[in-house]
Specification:
alpha+beta, Multidrug-efflux Transporter Regulator, Chain: A, Domain 2, Multidrug-efflux Transporter 1 Regulator Bmrr, Chain A, 6-stranded antiparallel beta barrel, elongated
Length: 261
């Protein structure tokens, strides 16, 4: 027979872990009536070895309890299939998060490079899923929620794009589109796609109310276009890149696309 300290040394694990296995009723050493000490035999060592194997597969203790009581190959296959599917889903989720982090890092670099500066670049295609009247039209957010399957858990502010039509007289229409990014190859034949090969591009910093920056941005943008002999199409698309806080107040970095001829 072995004491809990001896088993801990043999297995290279802590006494607390052995006690935890006992709490889960997977490990059941006998109790010495004379001194109330736990006593372990080789069967208990085998059980600890089995537990460590199952834990190496990241199986939950509920599954381990079942396997340690009574199990056959079919039981094992069923539990492993369930765990494997769970891991595959987690890998997909983590890959999505990793992609978003990479995109956010790129956005940080773009902000440093393009903040209040103008350049020419294409706007990647986006598919319009719906529209709401304004960023603050919270009662209309159901439009976003109804498209959750297509948005694939994309944060709300990343799925919204301000779409403005303007002319010499000023802004003619101003709507908030619910959109999703789409690959260029997948855009062929699709409907409700916004895709501009040549745009004036800049990034501006502001609060979440786009109107606060539009007038100033229009003036600067028109001056830059006139100086470089570009003619706009009367359209502006604005989306949020990143959000942060300054002295407890939300600020946002907005990317602005102005399609040109």
């Amino acid at each position: 027979m072995y004491t809990i300290g001896q088993i801990a040394n043999i297995m290279g694990i802590s006494k607390d872990k052995l006690r935890y296995y006992e709490e889960k009723e997977i490990l059941t050493p006998i109790q010495n009536d004379e001194n109330n000490y736990r006593q372990y035999d080789f069967k208990d060592i085998d059980t600890v070895l089995a537990i460590e194997f199952y834990r190496s597969l990241d199986l939950e203790f509920k599954a381990i309890q079942k396997l340690c009581k009574e199990s056959d190959i079919k039981d094992m296959q069923g539990i492993l299939d369930e765990k494997h599917n769970e891991i595959i889903q987690n890998i997909a989720r983590l890959n999505t998060i990793a992609h978003r982090i990479e995109k956010a890092k790129k956005d940080c670099n773009d902000i440093e490079k393009h903040l209040n500066n103008y350049s020419i670049r294409p706007m990647a295609p986006i598919k319009i899923l719906g529209e709401i009247s304004d960023f603050r039209a919270y009662k209309e957010f159901e439009v976003i929620h109804n498209n959750r399957d297509q948005l694939a858990e994309e944060p709300i502010f990343k799925s919204l794009k301000r779409y403005i039509i303007f002319n010499e007289e000023g802004i003619q229409s101003n709507t908030m589109l619910v959109t999703k990014d789409i690959e260029v190859d997948n855009a062929v034949g699709e409907t409700d796609i916004l895709d501009y090969e040549k745009c004036i591009y800049t990034i501006v910093e502001d609060g979440v109310q786009y109107e606060d920056v539009m007038e100033d941005n229009f003036i600067k943008g028109e001056k830059w276009m006139d100086a470089n002999n570009y003619k706009h199409k009367g359209i502006v698309i604005i989306g949020m890149l990143l959000v942060g806080y300054h002295e407890g107040i939300l600020k946002s970095y907005l990317e602005v696309y102005i399609p040109i001829e």
